[in-house]
Structures are given as structure tokens and as C-alpha cells.
Design a protein that fits this description.
Two copies of one chain form a homodimer. Chain A is of the alpha/beta class. Chain A has one domain: Flavodoxin domain (Rossmann fold, 3-Layer(aba) Sandwich), CATH 3.40.50. Chain A contains seven helices and six strands. In chain A, strands 1, 2, 3, 4, 5 and 6 form a six-stranded parallel beta sheet that branches. Chains A and B meet through helix 5 and helix 6 of A and helix 5 and helix 6 of B.
Chain lengths: 259, 259
């Protein structure tokens, strides 16, 4: 297994830092190759601008078209190219981050904004009567597995089906489905640690044990059963789920899981 | 009306730039005061780190506690303090941005990560048997109105109730409810422009007309009816919605609207 860990926390001596370190040692000890993109340590630039596209930047700037041309001609900024190469090298990708304001920290969003360019992560494949690009089940990163490892300050009940923040699966859907599954990554169920600010030295061993167990079963775990776009479930090009396919009472984001 | 526009797009000559400019001129012409935080033009730093907290930064860094202490003692970085002052000045806040990977660009996420500090936007008010802090209907920014103005590359059907991306209201829920309503902002229905990449000089006047109409009715528009946290709808401290309060068949994020 070749695992890329994308890590987004400002403090190495944090719970997130400890979970990242544990992933590195656990996977290496099990004989796997591991690379880490520690975004804070790298001083990762989080902001898309003309500098990303080198000589392919147009004026006015067109982020979609310019990023596609820069990808095609190899003129993307070197830091972006390096991350794309790591993604192509990896068969498994772990994202380690704290939930800040119900989603990822800006530095990680800026990693996706800059690295997931046109012609690499989107704008791939043909559009026809039966196909709307290669995405949601197909795409550049097809065959890879992805996993979110997330720490959350609040209690688990606040993220339960009736919890005030909304269900954790729905909060993570735009990341798991909209970002990871879009270019073809199979997404494993997330590893979520609640009450993260209250986990001390005494509480850490239980968290560590659960995380190690997840890490050692990455190859056998079943991905979230997101529906594939181009295989009959959706009207094309409207991309609305065909009537009657969903389990009774299912609505919202949950429509896009086939079981 | 005192309106703050927070604008997040790298290209001034873009649809987002035009919508921001139109908001400024339309509101000023109607006699309102307008201030703009143009994040790209300001070179906004999107990344939370120890520099945010000045002499209040601890080692190891504790982003929650340190930001609260820095807020209390006036040692937050000057760029953060300036944005907090603008928020307190405003009675209406407009966020202008393109939907990138189903949420806001990193530079805007980094504005929330850095400006919405502990003791300012969260960690406000007492916790007791009947109250779980002042949030979701109470808080520092109570009495203000907020509005997302969002451009979207895809077709409207892709964001419809059965659309493959998920319903637009659900995609925006973590921002509208989780970020804006949390510190007390009343959130107006979003202004969403679909097929944004295909809007040319010929198509722009229709979009502009719809946007002007929304701008001139900001004071009378009805906010999204999110439920208040501390007024009987939720179990405390579990913060789960009490049984039977929701309209039949309602689930997920939709539970947290009272009508």
C-alpha cells in the first residue's frame, strides 16, 4: 500500500499531530510506504491566483480554463505539480484535520482549490448522450481509496441525526462525495473523534487503538456506496436521480448512496 | 442600512467582481453606507497560526483558548480586529463568492477561521440547564442580516432536490446555519447564479436586474426560519431536536427549520 497523508493542523503537539504521527508509524511498521504533505510545515499557499498558472495565466484571469491549459502544458506552479504527482503515486489518501466551522481548515481547502485543477480532477472525459464527463465513479484518481480522519470539538449527539449541527455524514458529504468521489476516489467511512478538546493523556490510548484498527483494515474496508454517475442511475444531462431508485423515505444527500 | 460586503474572487473583471460592484453602486445610490472587504485585493492571510494571537499565543498552540484570550485582551492581529470591527459596525453582511468544490474559496474560509474567534463568534454566554451558550439565534452578531451571493458553474438541475451534487440549500447549510446563524446572524435566502461560466455580456443584464431587486429588498426580506437553540426545541445539553416538532417526512438539515 502506498499512502499519502495530507495533514492540516498548525500545532505538531496536538491531537491531530499525534494521529498523523501514529498513522505514519503504524502503516510503516505494517510494511507500507507513506508520504506526508504536512501543509502547515510546508508553508502551503492556500490561495488560487495567477501565479498558479505560470505562462498559462490569461488576462482577465480565468481560473478554470487557465488551470486546464497549465495542466496540459506542464506550466502549473511546482508546488501544485508535486502534489498531483503524490496523488498519482498513492493508492490510499488520508486527510487529517480538525473540523473548523463545520468543514476543513482553509489551508486544506486551498490544497483542493489549487491541486484539483481542470483536466486533472475535473473537466475529464467526453460529454455525450450517455456520459457527462468522467466523474463520480470514474476519473483521474479512480482505483484509489480516500479517508477523512477528523477531530470535532462538540459532543457526538450534536452531530447525530437530530443533532443541532446536522448529521456528521451530511456535513462531510460535500467533501466525501463532492471533492473526493468526484475524480473517482472510493471513500471509506470517516474516522471521527468527538469531544476532541477534552481528550487528555489518559483518554488518548483508546482513540489511538481505534485509529490503529482502522489503519490496519484500510485495504479490506468497504467504501461508502455512492452511486456512479454514468451507469444508468441519473438522467443525462440533467443529472437528476431517476425516479424510484431510492429506498423509501430517503431524500437529500442520502439519495446518492445506492444502499 | 450599513452593509459590509466580503468579496472573494481573484479577478476584478469577473462575474463576481461585477456583482460586487453592482451591490456597492446600487446600495449607495439608495442612500445606504457600504464598506467592502475585498479579500484578494487586501492580500488577506487565509491561514490561522500563532501570529493571530500575538502575546496570547501559547506553546503548544491552542487555537480556541488562545484566540479567546487574545480577543479578551485586545492582542488579536490588527487585520482580524479590523474585520471584527466592520462586523460590529454593519447591520447587513453580503458574502460574494464562487462555489469552488461545493463550498467557499479557501481565502473566504480563512476569513471565517481567523475572524470568528472564541469569545467573539463562539464560546459566548453561559451554559446551564436551559442554555448552551449564546448561539443559533443569539450571540455577538444578533440583529444583523446576512446573505450569500454565489456563482455556480453547473446547471440548476444538478443542484435540485434529486440533483447529483445534492440540493443547493443543503450544500449551503453548513455556511448559512453553521457559520452565520451560529453567532446570531439572521440569514436571508441566498442569491445563486447557475451556469455562471456561460453568462456573457448579453446574459448579464438579466442577472444584474435580479440582483438589484434582491439588494433593494434586503430590509424587508424574510430570513430562513432556522430554529433557535435555547427556546425549547432542543434537549439540553444533547442538543437533539425534541421528538415530534418537525413537519412529517422532514429529516437531515431540514429538521432545523421551524417551517
Amino acid at each position: 500500500m502506498k499512502t499519502l497523508i495530507v495533514h492540516a493542523h498548525p500545532e505538531p503537539r496536538s491531537l491531530n499531530g499525534a494521529l498523523k504521527d501514529l498513522a505514519v508509524t503504524t502503516l510503516r511498521k505494517a510494511g507500507h510506504e507513506v508520504r506526508v504533505s504536512d501543509l502547515y510545515a510546508m508553508g502551503w499557499n492556500a490561495v488560487v491566483d495567477a501565479g498558479d498558472f505560470g505562462s498559462s495565466a490569461s488576462s482577465p484571469l480565468l481560473a478554470v480554463a487557465d488551470s486546464g491549459r497549465a495542466f496540459d502544458t506542464g506550466t502549473l506552479a511546482p508546488d501544485i505539480r508535486a502534489e498531483q504527482e503524490k496523488l498519482l503515486w498513492a493508492d490510499t489518501i488520508i486527510f487529517q484535520f480538525p473540523l473548523w466551522w463545520y468543514t476543513m481548515p482553509a489551508i486544506l481547502k486551498g490544497w483542493f482549490d489549487r491541486v484539483f485543477t481542470y483536466h486533472f480532477a475535473y473537466g475529464v472525459g467526453e460529454h455525450s448522450d450517455v456520459k457527462y464527463g468522467e466523474r463520480f465513479g470514474e476519473g483521474t484518481l479512480m482505483g484509489r481509496r480516500g479517508l477523512l480522519s477528523v477531530t470535532v470539538g462538540g459532543r457526538e449527539s450534536h452531530y447525530a441525526p437530530r443533532g443541532i449541527n446536522g448529521p456528521i455524514d451530511d456535513l462531510l458529504f460535500p467533501i466525501q462525495h463532492g471533492i473526493l468521489y468526484y475524480p473517482g476516489i472510493d471513500v471509506l467511512p470517516p474516522f471521527v473523534v468527538y469531544n476532541a478538546d477534552r481528550i487528555d493523556d489518559e483518554g488518548f490510548p483508546d482513540v489511538a487503538k481505534a485509529w490503529e484498527q482502522r489503519l490496519l483494515t484500510l485495504e479490506s474496508a468497504e467504501p461508502i456506496p455512492f452511486r456512479r454517475q454514468n451507469f444508468g442511475d441519473y438522467e443525462i444531462p440533467a443529472l437528476e436521480l431517476k425516479e424510484g431508485l431510492e429506498p423509501a423515505g430517503r431524500s437529500g444527500f442520502g439519495l446518492h448512496l445506492w444502499s
